[in-house]
Write a structure and sequence with these properties.
The structure is a homodimer. The first copy, chain A, is an all-alpha fold. Chain A has helices at about 10-25, 30-35, 40-45, 50-75, 80-95, 105-110, 115-135, 140-165, 170-190. Chain A binds a DNA duplex (18 and 18 nucleotides) through helix 3.
Chain lengths: ~190, ~190
DNA sequence: GTCTATAAAGCGATAGAC
DNA sequence: GTCTATCGCTTTATAGAC
């Protein structure tokens, strides 16, 4: 029996894709309505705060996904080296091998950043901290780990921009493969088995 | 005597800042009018094609600036190593040490990319090719030069995203300093004096 | 919970006076 | 070349029927 109650969990991914593809300003209620399959009235029933609330909840869900699938394994995984490799794989899949951009990055570059400064900052910081933690647990010094982690953030975001700019998703996949190699090479020299 | 003819050269930089700060969709004619100091009527006198023409001409002017100040020195400079160092310095200044984002990157991530796919693609490709050319002239192999150049593009764009996301321009300056060191280290090992 | 209808404001773009 | 006034449309958001 089909349930009449629409779940937030079913709506948010559809809204997320609109924000990703069109940016905050470009994501109109008409597009959000079409993508979610809900009329504007229904959208306002779920999100009385309108577009801003929709974007905020989308960002929160993204953060939650990364927390579970990427940050926690990096922070708590038994094998940090394996967690790093898994992070690369998860990012490859999440960003659809460079064919999907990062909403947090899109928001960060736009005028809407001011309205979402906290979640945007937290996302990048938490990811970098989690990766640095894993690198430390592999034997790198705190300073080196932090530097390598920040570097990895740059590469991932930059690869998404360039892949879109050159219309060549392979740029992203190649950058992720290189990044993996570089991070693991660091470990090999820091803590040779 | 003040000239009554408004020069395109005076308008375009003002329009550019609006597109940079708000993205293509977020750059409204009201904002463009305010920033340029011209009424909407005047803007349409200069740009009959409206917003799309304004953005196209802004992108063309940006491309022209990079061609003169960055690409040509990399391609034709007598000392390629110095040209690379100069490129880093010019980028630092152009992006105001990370406080200004790259319009081409912003457009690349948004829905407007399809309308400006060619200039966006050309900008990144030409920059990467020019840098690769300089690296080759320093003694690196074609394959290594291309790889290092593409990597540099990622780092620059990524650093702009992360600097904005973390609201910390120093991330950009640090990334540029590291990039410079890495590129020059490559040269030292490839062509020791 | 979902919809249509509609309000009020803002949008890109045009016309025409000066 | 610049402006104001305005058009037609889209926008966000609300009201109210079902």
């Amino acid at each position: 029996m089909a349930k009449t109650i629409t779940e937030r969990a079913d709506i948010l991914p559809a809204l997320a894709e609109v924000f990703r593809a069109h940016g905050y300003e470009g994501a109109t209620l008409a597009l959000l309505s079409e993508a979610s399959g809900l009329g504007k009235g229904s959208l306002y029933h779920f999100f009385p705060g309108g577009k801003e609330q929709m974007c905020a909840e989308v960002l929160a869900e993204i953060d939650s996904w990364f927390e579970t699938n990427i940050f926690q394994p990096l922070l708590k995984g038994e094998d940090p080296e394996e967690a790093i490799a898994a992070m690369i794989g998860a990012a490859e899949r999440y960003f659809k091998s460079g064919r999907r951009v990062c909403l947090v990055g899109v928001v960060a570059l736009g005028a809407a950043r001011d309205a979402f400064a906290e979640p945007v900052r937290a996302y990048f910081k938490r990811w970098a901290d989690a990766l640095a933690s894993a690198l430390r647990r592999c034997g790198l010094s705190a300073a080196t780990a932090r530097r390598r982690a920040e570097d990895a953030m740059l590469v991932i975001q930059g690869a998404l921009v360039i892949a879109r700019g050159l219309d060549d998703p392979k740029v992203f996949s190649r950058a992720m493969a290189d990044l993996k190699g570089r991070l693991l090479a660091d470990l090999a020299s820091a803590a040779p088995a």
